[in-house]
Structure formats: C-alpha cells, structure tokens
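Supplementary Methods. Inverse-folding protocol.

Structures were first reduced to a discrete structure-token string of length 323. This string, shown here, constituted the complete conditioning input.
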C-alpha cells in the first residue's frame, strides 16, 4: 500500500495518516452497528433453527441408514449411543440424560453430575433392542420403543443414598419420545429479548444458592456466561471496525516497493492477534473466570493498542539519514 512517494504525496496536500483512516472508520463503524443488530436479532434464532433442523434430519434418516455400528446422537440434554442398527431395528442402546444449561429445569441435579466421575452418569439406561418409528410431518417428536431395558440410577439421586452404589431397575418394554425441537438454548441462541430475561433470572438463582457450594459455583458460571454474551456480540461487531483500521495502519507503516507484502502481513497479523485473544477469552468464559464488560473486548483492545502505536510512529515521520 505504501512506499514513501504515496505518503509524501498525501502529506504534500496536507492529508495526515489519521485523516486517511476517517473514511475507513466511517464505513467500519456503519458495518459494526449493522453486525451488532444482526447478531442480536436474527443470528441466535438461525443458530437454534439450524441445530433443530440438523437434529430432525439425522433422526429422519436413521430408519433408512441400513446396517451399521457405533452411532452416536448428542441432542441436548440426551445422549443416545447405538451399538448396531439395521433400518428401524436397533440393538445395544445406551441412553442418558445429561444436565442442561438451565440448572433449575434440568431433570438431574448439576451438583450430582459434577460429583460423579466422567465415566459414569447420574442416570442412564441400557436396552437390548429398540425400534424407531417414522415421523409424519405434523408430528413433533420421534417415538422409540425399547425392549429389555435395564435402568441405572446413581444412589446420590435417592434420599439418604450412597454414591458408591448404583440401583438397578428392569422393564420388559418402554416407549420414549424425542422432541424435534430442543428448548435448551445456550447464550448464543438467545435473541435480545430472551437474553435480557435470562440474565436477571440467572442472577437471582445464583443469589439463592448457598455461598461456597458447588451449586453456587455452577450458577455463577452460568450467570457470567449470559452476562458476557451481549459484550461478546459487541466485540464481534467491532471487528468490522478494528480489522480494516489496523490492517490499513500496518500497510502505511511498512515501507517497501513490494505491493503485496503489506497486504499479506496485514492479513496474517490482524486475525492472529484477535483470535489468539478470542481463544483465551472463550476458555475463561467456560471456566467462569471472566469480567463480562471487559474480557470479551481483549482482542479488539490489543488491535487498538497496535493501531495507536503505528499511528504514533507514522506521525513521527521518516527518520533522517545520517549520510
């Protein structure tokens, strides 16, 4: 983008590097607002519809897959593992219900799920055989009939029970329905109104929990994830502004006759800086170690620091040669 003659030509007309960025800043700011509104209004519903469509597509195809082994369906809050399938006939089925994101509406306590090791589940069943029926267009769920069902329940789910043992029950047959649409939406699948309602509800649930307990820790993590979601959407939208501004500043700062070098450096450095911070931010958000109004903006903050530094260097002008 830059060799000395281009920058000197601009400066000869009284145009500073900062003024060159104004047009980019205006267009980037406009796209930032548009991107934020899209992320608030439409993207969450698209994400939820895509997940439900994929879920219904997989279940619709199951009776037609023919023979196969080791098939797994992860449909919150269910996990269904099939050892052998041949059309609608299934053999060796493992089904468990894992806690959803909303701890209070989960069929199994999150505390119990956190206390058992990763190789077990607080509730699951194993069936020798099962048959899945075809769903008609007007039906809202899939019906599966299990045969030879053994139920395993962690004793911690039973009053005065011991977590060291598992109680077992047996049924000759059992019919279960899988809903087509899932009601367990995560923070990224909540639009503006739903997110505004979920944040105070999650905060109230955290306040009611016993301080220092595992339940309080889990509810705190859920609240922070919800509280930081709006800021995360702003952070994503701000990339429409920070990416082109920083890339343009890098192009101006590199003094070379090779026109492609500034382009490749900008395309490499800017995403690398942002997404390095984004990966770290996501890991902290999952742990609950996040400041909702600050942590999501880390990537943009790093780009802003780089932008200010580059503009300061450009304002200093080229160094005088000692020759």
């Amino acid at each position: 983008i830059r060799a000395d003659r281009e920058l000197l030509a601009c400066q000869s007309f009284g145009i500073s590097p900062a003024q060159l960025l104004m047009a980019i800043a205006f267009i980037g700011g406009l796209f930032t607002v548009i991107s934020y509104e899209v992320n608030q209004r439409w993207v969450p519903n698209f994400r939820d519809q895509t997940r439900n469509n994929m879920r219904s597509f997989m279940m619709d195809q199951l009776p037609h897959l023919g023979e196969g082994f080791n098939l797994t369906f992860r449909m919150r809050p269910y996990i269904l593992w099939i050892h052998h399938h041949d059309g609608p006939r299934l053999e060796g089925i493992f089904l468990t219900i894992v806690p959803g994101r909303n701890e209070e509406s989960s069929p199994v306590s999150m505390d119990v799920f956190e206390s058992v090791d990763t190789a077990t589940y607080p509730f699951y069943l194993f069936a020798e055989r099962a048959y899945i029926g075809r769903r008609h267009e007007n039906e809202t769920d899939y019906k599966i009939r299990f045969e030879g069902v053994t139920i395993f329940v962690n004793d911690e789910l039973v009053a005065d029970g011991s977590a060291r043992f598992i109680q077992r029950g047996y049924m000759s047959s059992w019919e279960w329905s899988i809903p087509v649409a899932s009601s367990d939406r995560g923070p990224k699948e909540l639009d503006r109104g739903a997110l505004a309602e979920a944040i105070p509800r999650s905060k109230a649930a955290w306040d009611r929990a016993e301080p220092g307990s595992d339940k309080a820790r889990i509810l705190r993590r859920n609240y922070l994830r919800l509280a930081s979601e709006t800021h995360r959407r702003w952070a994503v939208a701000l990339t429409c502004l920070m990416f082109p501004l920083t890339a343009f500043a890098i192009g101006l700062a590199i003094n070379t006759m090779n026109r492609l070098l500034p382009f490749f450096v900008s395309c490499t450095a800017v995403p690398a800086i942002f997404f390095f911070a984004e990966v770290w931010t996501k890991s902290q958000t999952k742990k609950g170690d996040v400041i909702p109004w600050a942590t999501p903006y880390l990537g943009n903050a790093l780009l802003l620091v780089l932008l200010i530094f580059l503009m300061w260097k450009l304002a200093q002008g080229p160094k005088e040669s000692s020759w």
